[in-house]
Amino acid sequence: MTVKSLLLAGGTLLVGAQAASASGFQVNLGGQKNNGMGGVGVGLSLDQAAMFYNPGALAMVRENGVQLGANFALARVSFRSADGGPQRELEDQPIVYPFNFYASFGPKDGNFRAGLAVYTPYGSSLSYGSSWEGRYSLTEITLRSVYVQPTASYAITPTLSVGAGLTILVGGSVNLQRDLPLPTGDGHIELDGKAKTKFGYNAGIFFKPSDKLSVGVSYRSKINAQVENGDVTLSGLPTAGGASAPVTAQFTATSFGATLPLPALASIGIGIMPTDKLTVGLDASLTFWSDYRNLDFTFSGNNGNAGPSTDANSGLVGNRTFSSSKRSYQDALTFRLGGQYELDEKLTVRAGAALDLTAVKDGYVTPETPDADRTILTAGLSYNLSENFGIDASYQFNSFKERSQTQQDLLDNGTADRVAGTYKTNIHIPGIGLHYKF
Length: 438
Known about the structure:
Number of domains: 1
Structural class: mainly beta
Largest sheet: 14 strands, antiparallel, barrel
Shape: elongated
CATH class: Mainly Beta
CATH architecture: Beta Barrel
Number of strands: 24
Radius of gyration: 23 Å
Strand order of the largest sheet: 1-5-6-8-9-11-12-15-16-19-20-21-22-24
């Protein structure tokens, strides 16, 4: 049997489960005000969302407050096969709903602030359907995750503050589906897994030497994401017995496990306040994706190779109960620029832009991560309904550079477990939020 089946499916699952903190499935939607300003925030102390961007800045947010926000991410994915034909949109994509909640408390004139953040930094949903050329690599993927971050921040001096938060993955799930090209007709596989609770940290330093300038640095630690006893569900397999028995015997796995390094992220940001009404921010981030070299999986039973083998890439997913898929990611930079202007005491408007460089090398693009260098344009506003209560709105447009790979590229890199062709992706992300200060 030479058909591949579970290897890429397993790779898709964990790539989605990580939903990286840089390119790929990055969700940099920590706060509605920041979203409207190109995603800047490391060098600013706008509000309680500082817990996400730079915990060190929280102590400089003098007002206690609570805020809640939600975003609505809709991806548009097009694909053109390397075998030719027109580039076409791949069905209607589902909407993903990242959200965030922040609350901070502390003495009004004190140097200490404590807070709690709940957010969904990793979330994605793509649907390719069963008619596209790469249906044997992927038909659907859905990812959900929830992070909780208790945070503390202290102002050492009136101009210098530090802070740190414990990042906790308290809930994560992913569902992946793909077709199987069996000799007896197409089958179907579904992988469903839940991530274990894992811990990391998010720390930062914030320095504001004057009313016109602020600087911040932050570091988010590497976390090893782990899935154990994920479910493997197969359908459309031939009835056992007779000529179909050898095919059926190759699929006995009912569960899988895998571990994936989620890379560290280092960021620096600058805030400039030329006037009391205008604020400008500039951020630069580096994600250490080079830790992500291979993706290895273990399975509870046969996974498409009924015969003995010592080749981890043989059969459908490798040597009976093990598979390995190359990733060979590279460290990736992101640059963000944005600003806000207070038109009056009730209305503030925002705009921004970002350049997010891909971590995926040529010849390594996968359907679950049709990643490429992307340009991001944003806009937003806040309207204060009262002295303490207001509404925040934002919009982001992500335009991915067209990304192509040939079958020869895949053969040269040893990545023939994915699809040759050209991808083009756009993402629209409107958002809405409420804030209350006290």
